[in-house]
Design brief:
Distance between the termini of chain B: 38 Å
Shape of chain B: elongated
Chains: A mainly alpha (102), B alpha+beta (377), C alpha/beta (226)
Helix content of chain B: 40-55%
Oligomer: heterotrimer
Largest sheet of chain B: 6 strands, mixed
Structural class of chain A: mainly alpha
Number of domains of chain A: 2
């Protein structure tokens, strides 16, 4: 088979796979809607405010509820202590000086 | 039209033959390239998907959380504050939340202990999240020990576990009855952790928040909007995770393109001269260079993106787990829902394919336009 | 068929290493004849051939091909003429390394968009004519000098040109191969092709093929036989 035909076949296969990817994604989103609703319902029932992704420290576990001090660990150098802390930023309102409430 | 296609195919034939001359080098180039695209695409997919999911899941979180502050730190809030909040017009419901962190020395994990009047367990038992269950190998019927604030040991039986589906929000939760909570943490009866407020009309929220701030000057108000913005920021391209990988990938793309852009070897120059001497036009030579760049970058893009999709949405981004986990012992087992869109693909295309292809074409421009008689010498 | 009128070619004009390669050459070359350009190295033979073959433009003067002036044509047209009218055989074969002989032969016709099958057949026929069909799929590095030269000739003929230009084609060949080469050229001549040689090899300029021998020295025509 000609090299160019092989290459174009490869490209076509790749594009088809990409299209399938999108199809699969939209199907999964539809299928996962129930599960997402279950999570949302739990959030409503228990009055939750954060995702349970970073359970290392209080200010990474409850990103939105962190107060002004905990991320800085009382230390004068304010060094970041936990790996997750370097992945997440403190909530927007605490980053503004004297962050006002809207 | 047919002629045009045939011309492209012929030139691609030659381009591929030319690339195959250095099989090892080009194969490893494609491999590295695919790897870089894979990393970048994985992060792009993951971050976007979680961001979308977070915004949907957290839709029903409290409209406003009122935290009492003392010397800049989050302190317990008097339950009596609830009355003042209730008096504000527009407030629908106020609930005193009781929650806190419990460090379990047995496994070194942090749990979030929480009270829920409607969905909580009866006194003496707990409902645990899947992450807790895994960490302590605890199932329905088992007992977990808790050390209270005054040193006493309190045994609580596992009544049930929270569903696997909701791990993303509940993995580390332990629901306890109020009296057990207060026993463990020593929280006095008149105090709660914070107040969860729901308003009747979301448009009135800023006004209500302002009034609350006026009524209770030692508190701060966390609005639902800020919750969303927090997660938006974490998972935006300026967030830590995204930024690190983005910079790394950009650097990688630049280095890969640099090798091409830094000019042609004399051998390559000579070959272009030969092609021109045997009748190829400048446009043919540039077209060949275009396909040369495309062959490498397009193949890597396709392979990298597809592998990234499989990685993120079929294995829940297993390679990122250790980075996201950090030092935590608990990590939720969850399936990321594939919220992807075309714009991500377009961005990846512009980062991965365009610079490299351009870097392959530009240096050849000069050589391609030179008179071919130099090859006669 | 080919007419040169007071053609001059200067390299690096205005710079300290300015070099006049062709210094006022006026010539008429007849069609279907074999012309040999003879002269020492540096006499401008190669430059003259490249000017005639539309590979370079003269600094001044005019070149006419079949009564059509080509000196002032834009590059695109020049390349088209070069592709359709001329076939080049270089001193150093100048085959693309790392790809097969067959591909080398087909290469000049790639941009034309001709159908692959017919192009391939034509290329195979040419290789067959020169008895190197069995080497079609071999990489050019593995070919002997004579085989490579024949691949180069086949390549020059793929677009069925009417004029063949050969620049010192026998310089790297031994006597036997040189004579074989001239035999092939004889066959091409009998197919009514115009052939232009640049050579200082007696096997070339003393052969029966040469209808005319033009002597060049220092970029000028010194003499012509006849």
């Amino acid at each position: 088979m000609r090299k160019s035909s092989l290459f174009l076949l490869f490209l076509t296969t790749g594009v088809i796979l990409l299209v399938l990817m999108f199809v699969h994604a939209s199907l999964q989103v539809r299928a996962g809607a129930e599960s997402i609703q279950a999570k949302a319902a739990l959030v409503g029932r228990l009055d939750l405010t954060d995702l349970c992704l970073f359970t290392e420290a209080s200010y990474t576990r409850h990103l939105s509820q962190a107060d002004l001090h905990t991320p800085f660990q009382d230390g004068p150098m304010s060094l970041e202590h936990f790996p997750s802390g370097s992945l997440v930023m403190p909530p927007a309102v605490t980053r503004k000086i004297n962050g006002k409430v809207d | 039209m047919e002629k045009w296609i045939e011309r492209q195919k012929h030139i691609i034939d030659f381009t591929l033959s030319s690339l195959l001359r250095r099989k090892g080098r080009n194969a490893s180039l494609i491999l590295v390239y695919t790897l870089v695209v894979f990393m970048l695409a994985s992060v792009v997919f993951f971050v976007q998907a979680i961001k979308r999911e977070a915004s949907v899941i957290l839709k029903d979180s409290p409209d406003m959380v009122i935290q009492r502050m003392s010397a800049g730190r989050h302190e317990l809030i008097p339950v009596s504050y609830m009355e003042q909040i209730r008096s504000i017009r527009g407030v629908g419901a106020v609930r005193a939340r009781l929650w806190g962190y419990y460090y379990d020395p047995v496994v070194g994990a942090n749990y979030t202990l929480m009270v829920s009047e409607d969905s909580g367990p009866p006194a003496g038992s707990i409902i645990i999240g899947q992450g807790v269950s895994r960490a302590r190998l605890a199932l329905e019927g088992d007992t977990l020990e808790f050390r209270s604030h005054d040193g006493a040991i309190i045994d609580l039986g596992v009544k049930s576990t929270i569903s696997r589906e909701s791990e993303l929000v509940s993995s580390d939760l332990i629901l306890v009855a109020e009296q057990d909570f207060r026993r463990i943490f020593g929280t006095p009866a008149e105090f709660a952790t914070d107040l969860a407020v729901r308003v009747r009309n979301p448009k009135e929220l800023p006004t209500v928040a302002l009034k609350a701030a006026g009524l209770l000057p030692d508190t701060r108000q966390i609005l639902k909007d800020e919750i969303f913005r927090t997660y938006d920021a974490v998972f935006s391209w300026r967030g830590g995770m995204m930024l690190v990988i983005l910079c790394g990938s950009l650097l990688a793309f630049i280095i890969l393109a640099w090798d091409k852009a830094s000019g042609l070897s004399s051998e390559e120059r000579r070959e272009i001269g030969i092609l021109k001497a045997i009748g190829w036009e400048t446009s043919d030579v540039l077209l060949m260079k275009f396909w040369e760049g495309m062959a490498i970058s397009l193949s890597s893009l396709l392979a990298g993106v597809i592998l990234a999709y499989v990685h993120v949405f079929f294995t829940s981004a297993v390679l990122f787990e250790s980075a996201l986990k950090g030092w935590a012992v608990l990590y939720p087992a969850f399936r990321v829902t594939p919220f992807i869109d075309l714009s991500q693909l377009v961005i990846l295309f512009f980062l991965a394919v365009v610079p490299y292809t351009v870097a392959t074409i530009i240096p050849s421009w000069r050589a391609a336009t030179v008179d071919p008689d130099s090859v006669m010498r | 068929m080919i007419e040169l009128v007071d053609v001059r070619k200067v390299f690096n004009a205005g710079q300290p290493n300015e070099f006049v390669a062709i210094d006022g050459v006026s010539l008429v070359i007849d069609a279907e004849r074999t012309t040999v350009f003879r002269g020492p190295s540096g006499s401008g033979k190669t430059t003259l051939l490249s000017l005639i073959g539309c590979m370079a433009r003269p600094t001044s003067g005019r070149i006419r091909l079949l009564d059509r002036e080509i000196t002032s044509l834009p590059e695109r047209f020049l390349t088209g003429i070069r592709q359709k009218t001329f076939g080049f055989i270089f001193q150093q074969c100048n085959l693309i390394k790392g790809i097969t002989a067959l591909e080398n032969v087909m290469l000049p016709a790639y941009p034309s968009g001709e159908k692959h099958a017919s192009l391939k057949n034509r290329a195979m026929d040419l290789l067959d004519t020169f008895q190197i069909l069995r080497k079609a799929q071999s990489r050019v590095e593995w070919l002997s000098g004579g085989e490579a030269q024949r691949v180069a000739i086949a390549r020059a003929l793929i677009n069925n040109p009417s004029i063949i230009i050969a620049d010192e084609p026998t310089a790297n060949l031994d006597t036997k191969l040189s004579r074989e080469f001239m035999e092939i050229m004889g066959r091409l001549k009998s197919e009514r092709k115009t052939i232009l040689f640049a050579s200082h090899d007696p096997i070339v300029y003393e052969s029966d093929l040469a209808d005319r021998v033009v002597d060049l020295r220092d970029g000028r025509v010194e003499g012509s036989v006849p």
